[in-house]
User: What shape does this take?
Amino acid sequence: MPKIWYRSRKYQVIIIALIIFCIFYYTSLGDNLYREPNLDLTRRWPKLRARTHWLARPKSTLSRLASLESLPVSSVAQADARHAPRAVKDLNVDSIDLGLTNTNNRYIEKRLEEALKEDKGTGCEIPKLDPFAKEVTQFDKELPKIVCQGQDWVKCYHAECKVVQKILDTTTNIKCTYNDIIYKSDSEYKIGPDTVVAGKDAYTLTASDHVKVKCTGNHVNSILPSKWTGHSLGFRSTVHPKKPPPRRENTINVLILGFDSTSHNGFIRRMPKSYRVLLDELRATVLSGYNIVGDGTPAALFPILTGKTELELPDVRKKMKNNGTLDSMPFIFYKLKEDGYRTAYFEDMPWIGTFQYRFNGFRHQPADHYLRSFYLEESSRGKKWFNVGSNNKYCVGDTPQYKLMLNITDQFLKLDGKRFCFTFIADITHDDFNMISTADDDLVHFLRSFQRSGNVEDTLLMVMGDHGPRYAKVRDTLQGKLEERLPLMAIVLPESLKRERPNIQEILLSNADSLTTPHDIYATVLDALDLRQHWNPYKVTGADFTRGLTLLEPIPKNRSCSEAGIEPHWCACLAWRDVSQDDELYQKTANALVNYINSLTESMRHKCAIRKLSGVEWVMRQRANSRMLSFVAAKDADGYVGQFGARVTPNTENYQAKIIVAPGRGVYEASMVYIVKEDRFEINSRDISRTNAYNNEPSCISDTHPHLNMYCYCND
Ligand SMILES: *[C@@H]1O[C@H](CO)[C@@H](O)[C@H](O)[C@H]1NC(C)=O
Ligand SMILES: *[C@@H]1O[C@H](CO)[C@@H](O)[C@H](O)[C@H]1NC(C)=O
Ligand SMILES: *[C@@H]1O[C@H](CO)[C@@H](O)[C@H](O)[C@H]1NC(C)=O
Assistant: This one.
């Protein structure tokens, strides 16, 4: 008698192995999804303080904190103000007194204050990064363009939805059933009643911007009935913005177009056509010192849209299990609504929504036009899971989703009245940044149409990224780390504003190389709208300037990361620091410089003496700060507590040295580049200066080889 298959030992072993594999797989998955062993320090602080006397703080908290912060921070020789006006000591964040007495300071504020003591007034040297350096281009790859299948039957433009001509031409007896997709809250929507529309008649959007549509008809070439089901979106006719206050009828419009995970350099590499159009045709100012202020998308969007950080706003995280929502937060949408603006907030990928993934979301839609319920319904049939790997997850019906976002943004700009729009596109960059290239031509088209239809006259345009790519592999390279911290921010000022305030274009341009942040974007938008009364006057304790500064006024060149609200491990600025005499590179740098000087006089060796090192005044190295170099990832799900590891090794390092040589007394200062892997220096004679007079040292060659005057000491 044949055995039933599951009785066979072989199959039993296979099944057990499969089960074990699944268990392991899910546990490993669990590690990725839940990487937060209750490390909720940043928010727990004030509460702990309320309950516990500081001096009697429980030991476990203390030691946990200590372990979080016990990181290698190099000790650095005394900075010498004479030769190193910009030298900063490595920020010694470890030794921060976490506020045993000061009960008003929270964790991060305290860290910023401490850091400010070290870096105040030092300014910021923005690293000059080659967008095409091998270190980062190794992650580039060409991906196929997004192609969507099929043909939508119904499209909407503004409030009117109707069957497209192509379908009318081939199909008879068309009947479409429309159902409004009605927003109830960020987590709930309802489907409205059926409305049946026949033939080419239009359906007008009134209850919602979004509809679900089912159509049937007979194709002319087929005896079988054909049908179509899909979603469409436009703008309902029933939104009537408030009347603007007197003399504020004609303030400018704003469009902020954001792409997830898009660094300044990444945009240059992967969106070359759009970048050229921004620069050459729209004359955009691209900020090269635009630095993130925290981890992830909310850390960029809260400051831009509220002028505050997450920690300064009510705690409405899901895990707090309170019923608070983001409605109580001071979003710019609310202020502008009062000012007579029509507002829009467009974001895709609802399952990882910026304000819904970790937070309770909104109870009422924050802007007049808001895509959340549309995307919830549209993706409800498993778009997120089932189409992984196929292009369908990037499509809404027959249209690539990013294109739909651009289209709806374009439609919004054509509505009447004052307009404020924030569009954030994530699907083509979130999983693999390389995918963004698929949108290059369409963004060019969008930007040119923006210009052609006259929006440059009265609309402030910002094209931005929230942060650069954050994958572990990228973070393993120095340039990848820096690019993560330097997202795209391109600004086009409207012509009307430039006429009103003639010097702002020049000022904005002069700020392009200064250290700037998302807090500045909030201040800038309000400045451009003449709503400065809503500025956030917050200053980091001890700072001279407010944390957010408008880009339409000169940003002080001595502004430092801490002053701008950037913690050391997010700070991309480079700083010069002394190299201690124990450091191997101290002697190496000095020797390399003498050797180079000798090599210059080599051809005249019969006349010029070989010079020997008789003293080293100082050696300095330019580096990103050590917290930045050793930052690995956030330790908590909210992204406020850093996990630090081995520092990444840069490919090159810049050094400066001042040395004295004999015979005679030659004093030289030089800038040199150290090639780390090859352990050698690159020196250019243009970067060497002789700082004492050479008098008649080179008299034997000065007639014939005057270019060696600085280096030659005559033998005779
Ligand atoms: C920074 O520069 C401003 C002028 O732009 C000056 O008033 C301020 O004192 C400087 N701050 C420091 C700390 O040097
Ligand atoms: C939120 O919770 C508080 C107390 O837990 C309750 O008084 C309040 O009505 C709740 N609000 C809503 C909108 O559910
Ligand atoms: C946006 O989509 C609508 C409906 O398909 C279409 O009529 C319109 O031309 C599109 N706009 C742009 C700028 O592509």
Notes: The chain has four domains: 1-34, 154-233, 253-573, 575-708. Residues 30-105 have pLDDT under 50 and may be disordered. Residues 154-233 form one domain.
